[in-house]
Every structure is written in C-alpha cells, then in structure tokens.
Amino acid sequence: MEAALELNATLGGMRPLLLKLARLQLRNEAWAEDVVSETMLAAIEQAQRFEARSKMRTWVIGILKHKIVDQLRRQMREVSIEAQIESGEIEEFDELFNDEGRRLEPVQSWGDPEELLSRQEFFEVLQSCVDALPPALARIFLMREWLEYDTAQLCKELNITATNCHVMLFRARMRLRECVGRKWGRRGVAS
Amino acid sequence: MSERMDRELGPGERLRLRLHLTVCATCSRIERQMQFLRQAMRRLGEG
Predict the structure, then answer these.
(1) ipTM score for this prediction
(2) Do B29 and A107 make contact, defined as CB atoms within 8 angstroms?
(3) Which of A173, A175, A184 is the best substitution to test chain B (most B C-beta atoms within 10 A)?
(4) What is the pTM of this model?
C-alpha cells in the first residue's frame, strides 16, 4: 500500500522529466506523450516487480527507454525521407577541424568528472546541448549512448553503412563536447 | 577515438591511436571528454 502511494507520487513528479527525455529522443510531441503514458501505465502494472533496492527513478527511466525503443522500431519500419534530408544537412559542418586535421580552438578541461556528475546544472547543460544537435545526429547519439544500442544493430536499424554510422557518432560527440565546454565554461564553474 | 567507443579496433589501429594520444595532449583531453559524455548520458535523468 505504502509502496503504491510512493509509486504514484514518484510517477506524478517524474512526468515532466519523462516527457523531456522522450522529446529529446523522439523529437515529436505526440509520440513523446504516447510513450510517457505507456511508461506510466506499465510502471503501475509492474509495480510488484519493482525491487526496493534499486532506485525508483532509475527503474521508471528504464521502462521509458524500453517504450522508446519500441516506438523507434515502429517508426523505422516506415523508413523516412526525412532521414535522407537530414543526412544532407549535416554534411556541411567541419567539426572545428581545419584542413590538416588540427583543432582550431584550444580544448579546456571540464574539471573533476565526479563533481560534474553530482551537479543537476551540468545535466541541464548536457540536455540543452543534445537538444541543439541536428535531429539526425541527436537521434543516433541518444540511441547509442542513452538507450545503449549495440553499434551494429544501430546501423542496421537506421539502414546506414557502418562508416556513416561512425562518422555521425563522431560528429555528434565532437559537437556535444564543444557545446558542453562552451556553455559550462561560461558559467565559470569548471576551469 | 570515437570509433573505438563503438567497435573493437584492430591491433595496428590500437597501436597507432595510443602513439598518437601520447603526443597529442588535446586529443587525449577530447578522448576523456567523449568517454565522460558516455558516462553522463547513461545517468541522464536519474538524478
């Protein structure tokens, strides 16, 4: 009984966060709403399976990730023209390298990793930087690093070559670290 | 660097990357940041 009350309270409180995460990956309001509703229902249905030793938030986010994977699979069956347009869009960017492959800007340290991971503001910066990626890059990066797809499976599901897959992940990572470095550095928190 | 996070490199590739990272401090830093982003992404939202 107490556990059920706790679950309801946790779910209610988490709804905005779940929506934000779902939007980040799916970039579609209706799909995001759907997966969040499905997640909350599934959490209530599977409440008995929740084991108190894991964190409730972590458990709920785990369910959300599964629901998003299902949604992505449904989408990917209708292979999109959109993906082709997007892959054209990201060709132009040079990821801050010049012709000899040397970096143009010095790379600053972000400070102590453990400290960063304990700060809510850091995760807000990270999220806003993922959100600022071109949709195709954000999608593949989140599938790999958040949903933890295996790379081979990822390329296959997105229907792109391994080389293209690696290039896109590389670009996403480079842009993300550039963005995080810039935004986090500006706060003057980490040197 | 990035590719190493997604597939196993061959022995030659690994050696070349390691040699390169010993002479390029900027690259080592970029590599650490990419690895750190992976760690951070897995905790996204879990607070």
Answers:
(1) 0.94
(2) yes
(3) A173
(4) 0.84
